[in-house]
Amino acid sequence: MGAHATITVPSPELMTDLGRRLAALLRPGDLVLLSGELGAGKTTLTRGLGEGLGVRGAVTSPTFVIARVHPSLVGGPALVHVDAYRLGGGLDEMEDLDLDVSLPESVVVVEWGEGKVEGLSESRLEVRIERTLGGESEDDGDPRRVRVSGLGERWTGGGGLAELGG
Which domains does the chain have, with CATH numbers? Predict the structure, then answer.
């Protein structure tokens, strides 16, 4: 059994804040899958995760490098930020990134990972970001509905997801 939280996020600034609050719940070995349309706010949420985890470097979309590692500046886990948008081979292609090696001591966040990386961990957070009014970019003023689902033993009992609000 897992845990769920649904939060309405009215602005990009509050999406970053949600990422910071979510980071407080994460620990080394956690896998976070982000899904949503282009411009929905996946990278903005990840930027907040990076701030909350206290990692080095600006968190930007790793679309062209596929994966970027942000080491911790505060003795916590590194943030491994992956953009699987251009990867079509599923877990086989993802294995070339050695995420299974990084996962035990890092927080691994995969944008566009749905249907590609679930095999990395039975316990994971799945975060789906949806526009509520049908806007087309992150700056469209359209509030977002964010559904956070904790799956697997790690999130049994909620894992603090209820504290995210909603």
Answer: 3-154 (3.40.50.300)
- Count other Cβ atoms within 10 Å, centred on residue 147: 16
Kindly state the tokens that stand for 123.
Answer: 């316990």
Distance from first CA to last CA of the chain, Å, rounded?
20
pLDDT single digits (tens) 4-59: 899 999 999 999 999 999 999 999 999 999 999 988 999 999 999 999 999 998 88
Q: What is the maximum span of the chain, computed from C-alpha positions, in angstroms?
A: 41
* Distance of alpha carbon 85 from alpha carbon 104, whole angstroms: 23
Is residue 96 over pLDDT 60? no
Q: Given pLDDT bands bounded at 50, 70 and 90, which one contains residue 139?
A: low
